[in-house]
Amino acid sequence: MPYTMEVNTAKNQVVVKAMGLTEADVPSYISDFEKAMKQLKPGFTGITDVTGSPTILSPEVAAMLAPTGEMAVANGLGGWVYVANSPIWKMQMKRLFGSFAVHYPTYEEADAYLQSLKK
């Protein structure tokens, strides 16, 4: 599987690790994302870690994933962070998900940022 998606209900958070999504992966990703949204409460946070992905998203995959940002906002998103060690990934995530696409180079920094939002 080119990604994992785990919901931590205690933290009211979803953690995605992407290892290279293709167009064929998007339907199952969106299905998993919808299931995750049903398990979270308004104010939830999310982390997408793309440090394990060898390439950025193709324009087609990026377009297919764009509705997940709107879905997150509609479900009461409290904050979302991308963990990326490449300026190209950072640019792509910002373009895809706009103002709530905060970027950190490490998972620990990303998690600390999200925890600070809940205070």
CATH architectural name: 2-Layer Sandwich
Distance between the termini: 35 Å
The radius of gyration computed from the alpha-carbon positions, rounded to a whole number of angstroms, is 13 Å
Structural class: alpha/beta
CATH superfamily heading: STAS domain
Major sheet characteristics: 5 strands, mixed
Spans where pLDDT lies below 50 across 5 or more residues: none
* Large-scale geometry: globular
What fraction, in percent, of the residue positions are helical?
40-55%
Element pattern in H and E: EEHEHHEHEH
Protein name: SpoIIAA-like
Quick gist of this model?
By secondary structure, this protein is α/β, with parallel strands linked by helices.
What keyword list fits this structure?
119 residues, alpha/beta, Transcription Regulator spoIIAA, 5-stranded mixed β-sheet, 43% helix, globular, SpoIIAA-like
Detailed description of the structure:
By secondary structure, the chain is an alpha/beta fold. It has a single domain, classed as Transcription Regulator spoIIAA (2-Layer Sandwich). The protein has five helices and five strands, in the order ββαβααβαβα. The protein has helices at residues 26-39, 59-65, 67-74, 87-97, 107-117; strands at residues 3-8, 13-18, 45-49, 79-83, 101-104. A five-stranded mixed beta sheet has the order 1-2-3-4-5, with helices on both faces. Helix 1 links the parallel strand 2 and strand 3 (45-49). The longest helix is centred in the first third of the chain and has 14 residues, at 26-39.
